[in-house]
Design goal:
alpha+beta; 29% strand; RNaseH_sf; 4 helices; four-stranded mixed sheet; RNase H type-1 domain-containing protein
Amino acid sequence: MIKWAVELSEHDIEFQSRLAIKPQILVDFISKIVGREDDMQHQVWKIFVDGSSTSTGSGVGIVIKSSKADSMKYAITLEFPTSNNDAEYEAILLGSKLIHVAGAKEYMLSATPNW
C-alpha cells in the first residue's frame, strides 16, 4: 500500500484507503432471519440493488424478496467517496453478502431495480 501511495504521489494522485461499512446491517439482517434458515435454503430469492453518489454523499439501496412475497429493505450510507458506478458495485457486493450470510442457496440479482 505504501509503495502504491508513493508511486501515485509522483503523478499528483492521492491514495485514500477505503473506510469500513458499518457491520450493523449484517447484525440487523441476521436477527430478522434467525429461525428461517430452512425457508432461506428452499426458496429462490430476488435481490434488487441500486447505488447513488452525489456531492454530499453516497449510498445504496437493497431489497431482498422471497418467492413467498416476504421482503426486507435496506438503505446504507457509504462512508467513503465514490462514483455512481462504484456505489452500485458496493450495492451488488452487499446484497450478495447478505443473502449468502442468510444461507440462501439460489438467488437472482438485479441492478436495475423494480422495487
